[in-house]
Amino acid sequence: MKRLHFRYEMELTLDQKVEQHHFLVRCRPAQNRGQQCIWFSRRIEPADTVDEVQDGFGNVGFAGVAQMPHDCLRVEAEGTVLVDLSASGRKEECHPMYRCPSVYTMPDAAIRDFLSETKAGSGSARIGLDELIDLMNRLYGRFVYAKGSTSVKTTAAEAFAGGRGVCQDYTHVFLCLCRLAGVPARYVAGMMLGEGETHAWAEIWLEDHWIGMDPTNNRLVDETYIKLAHGRDFADGAVDKGCFLGFAGQMQQIYVKVEELV
Q1: Is the dihedral of CA 219, 223, 224, 228 positive or negative?
Q2: According to the 3-state scheme, what is the secondary structure of 22-84?
Q3: Burial label, 86 (beta-carbon count in 10 A; 0-12, 13-18, 19+)
Q4: Pairing between strand 60-66 and 164-165?
Q5: Can you state the angle between helices 109-116 and 129-142, rounded to 10 degrees?
Q6: What pTM was computed for the model?
Q7: What is the tens place of the pLDDT at every residue in 74-125?
Q8: Distance in angstroms (rounded) separating the CA atoms of residues 202 and 129
Q9: Closest by Cα among 215, 190, 212 to 203
Q10: What is the pairing mode between strands 225-231 and 240-245?
Q11: N or C: which end of the chain has fewer CB within 10 A?
């Protein structure tokens, strides 16, 4: 078990004032068998109202509105999380939707060909963790991490064709491959030990429980990760989203720090 402290900061700067800014921020760690948030604090400014909400995937978020003209939205969150994957248990639920392609994870011929070259795509009746680790290893060797090479609208097929991207793209391609191989998989947004930004990885469903796999770093998820939200793909599991009334250019800055407490 690990005791992790995190800090999340997001600042959205607008080059003109906007109003009626509706937002949703999922900055509170998920509560599940393997993860418990024991202390949490957040601040969102400006905001006329902020309500805690839960979506159909079980993700908790803070939905609010800033009605008056403003040119900046800032979110600060901090907390302490206990992570104990040995306590995650088995016989977890898996909705059938995680078996099917989603908007960001539709396969194309190139992805199908790549899968056929791996153990997971060999036609075996049973695919286990070893085959999926092999699949992740091969994707890691095929892909290059490159900021700015993709956008939040890039699909798995587009990212795979370019051979480069960021954690969202690695995860979308891996989800696409897993589902194509017949293994249910879902998108996860969260944080990991160290300083930087939010992170994305996959959870795959094997033997009645979810297992975290991080294709960006080519490793299994361990107790140094903090989960915030999950869904079929980025559209479901984004940490923050919103819309406003007005025409303005946007610049978003995110800072995350996760450290282990002893």
Answers
A1: positive
A2: EEEECCCCCCECCEEEEEEEEEEECCCEEEEEECCCCCEEEEEEECCCEEEEEEEEEEEEEEC
A3: exposed
A4: unpaired
A5: 120
A6: 0.95
A7: 999 999 999 999 865 567 889 999 999 999 999 999 999 999 999 888 776 6
A8: 13
A9: 212
A10: unpaired
A11: C
